[in-house]
Amino acid sequence: MHVHISLTDGSPDPVVKAFRKLSFDRLYLLAGIATEAPAVDLGRTLEPLGVSTVIRRISGTSFGEVCDAVHSVCETEGPHGCSFSLGISGGTPVSAAAMYSCAYLMGADVYDADILLPTPRVPELGEETRSVLERIGELEDTRGRAGIKDLSECTGRTKQSLNYQLNILRREGLVQDVTDPKDRRCRSIGLTDKGRMVAGWS
C-alpha cells in the first residue's frame, strides 16, 4: 500500500496531479484551520477513486508540528509495510523544509504536485552501528558527554570493535570527535546535527 502525505493550501490540483502520477491508496492531508474545509472536499473527490483520506490539522508555520504529524503517520502506517511519498505543494517554506527533513529520515520521495524533487537519503546503517549511534545520544543526554570508555561499557563492545562502528558514523557525518577544553587528553564522541536527527527518528 502506498501512503501519500501532503501539505495543502486548499487547492485540489497539486494533490490530484500527484494521485495521477503515484496512484496512492491513502492520503494524509496536513491542513491548517483555513484549509480544513477544502481538504474535506478534496477527500470526497478522491473517495470514488478508492483513496481513503485522513486530515491532520497543523499550523503551516510550525516546523516541529509538521515533523510530528509526519512522524505520527509513519508510526501508524509503517508497521503495515507501506511505502511513503510526501507532497509539498501548498505549504509554507517552513512546512516544506519540515517535509524535506522528514523525507530524508524516512527515505521517502518528495513531490511538488507530480514533479519528483531530488531528496538526499539517510545512510544505510547496520543494526550494531545504529545501536552505537543511539547509545551516544543517550550518554550525551544523561551525562553531557559520550566518552569512549563509557561508550565501551554501555555497549559491551571492545574499543577496537567500537572504533570500527565510530569510523562508519564519522564517515557518514553523524558523529564527531570532541575534546574537553579543560583537558585536551579527554576525548569524547558527539552527535552532529545530522546524527541527532537520525538517532531521534529511530
N-to-C order of helices and strands: EHEHEHEHEEHEHHEEH
- Regions with little confidence, pLDDT below 50 for 5+ residues: none
CA radius of gyration:
20 Å
Termini distance?
22 Å
CATH homologous superfamily of the largest domain? Hypothetical protein VC1899 like domain (Restriction endonuclease-like)
Question: Which quaternary structure do these chains form?
Answer: single chain
Q: Give the CATH topology of the largest domain.
A: Rossmann fold
- Examine the secondary-structure arrangement and name the CATH architecture of the largest domain: 3-Layer(aba) Sandwich
Work out the helix count: 8
Instruction: Let me know the number of strands.
Output: 9
Strand order of the largest sheet: 3-2-1-4-5-6
**Largest sheet: number of strands, sense, barrel closure:** 6 strands, mixed
Identify the CATH class of the largest domain.
Alpha Beta
> Which bin fits the share of residues in helices?
40-55%
Strand content: 15-25%
Can you describe this structure?
Helices cover about 50% and strands about 20% of the residues. The chain has about 200 residues and is an alpha/beta fold. The strands form two sheets. The chain has a six-stranded mixed β-sheet, with helices on both faces. Helix 3 packs parallel to helix 4 and helix 5 (about 125-145) packs across helix 7. It is elongated and about 65 Å long.
